[in-house]
């Protein structure tokens, strides 16, 4: 059992890091979309409205991120039956992320009185970094959270991590109900 648990934990860690790498790739592309559009808007059509420019860039990047994370990063974890719930959670979490990145720009611009567009841009980038950490874990555990059992090679791994249940009259024998099928009566 110890060897099996060790092998499975290594597999879970490997799966986690693959998801982190894919999430990072999607995030890097979304970062380019967000910041490229924000810079364009700050120095062009929305000059003087830096907070609004950051907001628009973040919304467009969020739409890209939804598609890329759903169909690539977390493709085996995405909900097939309840896409509306998944999208709603995704938008809620990204709304919080947009508030964070836009909030950093707003704090730099208004309470701190910074007017330099480059400094305001960097404040937004710092906000994106903070929001990205929140987004990864929220996506992984709340949005794209279909059972890990659906991942090929990882069937019943959740059972290895659950606490054994001591059944009454079992004289202290630990039984893991998730692994052992229920007995037919």
Keywords:
single chain; 185 residues; mainly alpha; two-stranded antiparallel sheet
Describe the structure.
It is a single chain. The protein has 185 residues and is mostly helical. The chain has helices at 2-42, 50-73, 83-109, 117-143, 157-161; strands spanning 165-166, 174-175. Strands 1-2 form a two-stranded antiparallel sheet. β1 and β2 form a beta hairpin. The protein is elongated, with a radius of gyration of 22 Å. It starts with a helix and ends in a 10-residue tail after the last strand.
Would you kindly provide a brief summary of this structure?
The protein has 185 residues and is mostly helical. It is built from 5 helices and 2 strands. The protein is elongated.
